[in-house]
Amino acid sequence: MVTPKKSMNAAESNGTQELNDPKLAALVQEINGSTQQLADQVEQLTPEQLRQQAYPTEWTVADVLSHLGSGATIMRRRLDDEVVDMQAIWDDWNAKDPDSQAADSLLADDLLNDRLYALTAEDQDTMRFAMGPAELDLLTFLDLRLNEHALHTWDVVVTFDATATVPDNRAALIVDTLPLIARFAGKPTGVDRDISIRTVGPSRTFALALRPDSVTLSPADPVDQPDLVLPAEALIRLVYGRLDPDHTPRGIVGVGHLDELRQVFPGF
Question: Element (H or E) spanning 145, and its range?
Answer without folding.
Answer: helix 138-160
